[in-house]
Amino acid sequence: MKRFALTFAVALACAAAAHAQAPVADYYSLNSTMNGTQLTAGMTIEAFDGDGIRCGTATVNPDGGFLMHVYGNDPLTAGIDEGATQGEFLQWRIDGTDLSASDATWIANLVGSFNDIRWENGAAKQIQLSATTSAIEPQSWSAVKDRFRR
After folding, report:
1. 46 DSSP β-pair partners
2. How confident is the model at residue 81 (pLDDT cuts 50, 70, 90)?
């Protein structure tokens, strides 16, 4: 019986190690904007670590909010960068528009010790993203044609 219990304990420990979850932090927003207007359902939010690795993605809900799981670098896969590291600032993108660091604002922690937007394993943070796009004024074809006429 002891041998069975020991074998069962070892098998259980191995199964638990095989199914270990990568580090993760949650970020959510209730009032992020694009050009001063609340985000609309279906827009895509992405988070990237400092090396440009996409480590989180979410779709905006009908109420304009989103919840994103942002994954950290898995310590079990040395030499492979899959995500953020403890204390790293993330880079954000809304529908393909890159945000500057000042466009991502920390609101509050539900869980976490960094009182800012830095990634930390197990954290749950409320943030606000405020993207601004710049549109180029369209020109009529005749204005473009006249410009190159000489």
Report:
1. 57, 93
2. confident
